[in-house]
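Deliverable D4.2, example record:
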Amino acid sequence: MSPLDMQPAVTAQELSLSAIIGSLSYALDLTEGLPAGHSLRCCWVGMHVGERMGMNSEALSHLYYTLLLKDAGCSSNAARLFELYGTDDRQVKRDFKLVDTDSLMRLGRFVMSHVGVGKSLHERVSRILNLAQNGEQFATELIATRCERGAHISIQLGFDKEVAAGIRCLDEHWNGRGKPARLSGAEIPLASRIALLSQVVEVFHSAADRAHVLAEVRQRSGSWFDPAVVEAFLEAQQQPGFWEGLNDADLQQRIERIEPASKVVRIDEQRLDTIAEAFAQVVDAKSHYTYGHSARVAIYTEAVATAFGLPRERVRWLRRGALLHDIGKLGVSNAVLDKPGKLDADEWEQVKAHAAYSEQILSRLDIFSELAFVAAAHHERLDGKGYPRGIAADRIPLDTRIITVADIFDAITAERPYRGPIPVPDAIAMMEKERDAAIDGACLDALKQALPGLGF
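Output generated by the structure prediction step:
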């Protein structure tokens, strides 16, 4: 049995940072268009490789969080990717991970099959020519944005500079042809080298089979991958239980158990606030039109809850719900989020699905279980005509009603793809028309009471 399988389990009373990050990593998988659990499976692969390479406990800890947070910046380039390709950014991200970019033929096929899907021939040709002429520059820009943002978020979460460096250099290749800095060989942090291989292993394992995984790894040894990392992987994958672990329904619990014991970090209230704030930034970075939305909804929620006289602990808890209420939007394409015109029926269903995604992500941890329903129900209406469940007033708690009024106020007063921001007096007048239908009247009154203190 591998030492990775022998760590003692973390009890619910000793909830660790790894449990929180592991659960929220599902949101990052959504953004990349990858099957749920991608980050966890990468962590499983990478930690086995790191152990095989003889990394010490501190280095393994840096590797562990590099693997779980490697996609923390993934939402920051989604809008730009949609702008360039004119199609579902999540599908582009997912399929691009299967492409060996050292092969111009594979890269060309990818561009031809993914640019401007469903658009006119003229638009497709224009986009293809743009990518052909400026593709290298665009690719560097997209990867630099993603990696720098991910590194920044890891620092915000309190991780060491080694974790930030591991994330920043994720897309550098052993042969120096990666991005954004074109580092090569040992210039690339070992955690980055392992994380890149782990990512390729996972996407090919999910898309194909073990034979394809081994073929791709061997083919890219010495180009994408450090040959020593490849050798360690080929040895690690022969261990009993390695491949079975990737399909284990309890993989998240396994991942929590293999965190290097000397670096296990227990969470407190302040750390929970920081995590909620960081993931809110991931959500808001997905679209120019949602930038700052979660943070503003949290401010309005806190003001309304305070006006109601809720206990400080409850206000703090509710603020976290407001910060994370739209985490499911990471699973919605920017082709929908940034569309300037009216959504069709299918696109509207995609938008509505974000509420269910939010609940699924937040409910993965007991500590967020109550918050999961409260936050995800912010599009329910008192008259029962909301979504995702279509529940009516008697089943909508005050906590949700507070987030709802805050969310609607920001949605109206902020810029949207199809219109500019609406002045506050006009916004309140619009909200009054939905009093006790979509919006709780007492919550609306509390919002109006709080507006002067918010600078309105």
